[in-house]
Amino acid sequence: MDTSEKLFEQAQKVMPGGVNSPVRAYRAVGMTPRFIQSAKGAYITDVDGVQYIDYVGSWGPMILGHANPQVLRAVEQTMKNGLSFGAPTERETDLANLVVSMVPNIEMVRMVNSGTEAVMSAVRVARGATGKDKIIKFEGCYHGHSDAMLVKAGSGALTGGRPDSAGVPAAVAGDTLTATYNDLDSVERLLQANKGQVAAVIVEPVAANMGVVPPAQGFLEGLRALCDEYHALLIFDEVITGFRLARGGAQEYFGVKADLVTFGKIIGGGMPVGAFAGSRELMEQVAPTGPIYQAGTLSGNPVAMAAGITQLTYLNDHPEVYTKIEANTTWLADQLRALEDKYHAGTTVNQIGSLLSVFFTEQPVTNFAGAKSSDVARYAEYFRHMLAQKIYLAPAQFEAMFVGNAHTQADLDATAAAAEKTLAAMAN
Ligand code: PLP
């Protein structure tokens, strides 16, 4: 029994499934999760001292690599003055200014502690501001675990086979309508059938929680036009795409304007931060200036703000990061596609920016049905082979691979070589 196995046994006695977030339990890949000791740059090391090339990146935040020296220094310096005050600090304004300067079409920001909170609050703003209750989301998109969003959800909910969670009141779920990703007609039908009742359409501008599914040409533009026509707000959930696709996220990358935007992950530099943002007109409807209540004891935490400011400042000052990580991810996707042909692997590789997925299906993956056609048992086999070769991937088919600034060409070469060995072995 290795150390991870021992620790997992103990963990399962006191925490459901031994974890604090379901996908970490490795159930989809039939293994014991690696317990982690430390991480640095592109590498993560488990409690038995095995070092892996990491493509999870804490599920997105670590775009500059783990334990970035500048981020650590900022955290260290800030924490000396105290961990939390429950009162305003200058750093909150600094991070808000930075976000507003980097992201198009937003004027004001409210900080929260997670992506879930950001989305939950943005949905409340949309409802409060429009006076309407219904929300349209897309099947297979994940927007955190608030009641209204756990309807046909992706990520861990999908992997666990429960995209509709127990414990969500039918009355709440009834106000969440689901459309098909990349299918504008499915959205229009819902808007038409629920005329005057839809507060917002919420979308992952790149779906990354059913695996990576880029928006088809014209899809996001079409959503914008439909929202305008039916007087609904358009919410971009940029918890993954924010500060990743580009400095200004998906709005900049695709040139489409959203009314409300949610952030998480990268904005906190590895600390628990989320945010929602929009025009002054919408955001001033939030308490204390407006009637839409939202609050948080630890929101705007000084240490978390320091980490976020440092990471975002670096990204803002180094736009070449985006060119590099996109080029590296495109290179890796090309290698994986070549292997697909060479070994008749029966895979489909989707990639955009620094996000990538290998689906174990031969059909193009443009929506949830395509993603669901994947052979999850074959993904699990692929995962286990890759882990044995010290490549740390997401332990589930319906997740993204995150490439970051710390991955070197040598790391990518090693990853492509491991994938070749894996697909060759799986072909036999
Ligand atoms: N929205 C999207 C697009 C996400 O990918 C996630 C998490 O993966 C969330 C919301 C929820 O964020 P958090 O896990 O920080 O609550």
UniProtKB/TrEMBL annotation:
- Please tell me whether the keyword Cytoplasm is annotated for this protein: yes
Q: Which reaction does it catalyse?
A: (S)-4-amino-5-oxopentanoate = 5-aminolevulinate
A molecular function (GO) held by this record is: glutamate-1-semialdehyde 2,1-aminomutase activity
Cofactors that this protein relies on: pyridoxal 5'-phosphate
Enumerate the InterPro entries for this protein: 4pyrrol_synth_GluAld_NH2Trfase (IPR004639), Aminotrans_3 (IPR005814), Aminotrans_3_PPA_site (IPR049704)
Q: Name one Pfam family in it.
A: Aminotran_3
EC assignment: the record states 5.4.3.8
EC top class, as a word? isomerase
Please indicate if the UniProt record lists Cytoplasm as a keyword: yes
Q: What is its main location?
A: cytoplasm
Please give the residue positions where the record annotates the modification N6-(pyridoxal phosphate)lysine: K265
Q: Which CDD domains does this chain map to?
A: OAT_like
Q: How does it assemble?
A: Homodimer.
Q: What family is reported? A: Belongs to the class-III pyridoxal-phosphate-dependent aminotransferase family. HemL subfamily.
Q: This chain belongs to which protein, by name?
A: Glutamate-1-semialdehyde 2,1-aminomutase
- Annotated source species: Butyricicoccus intestinisimiae
This protein's gene is called hemL
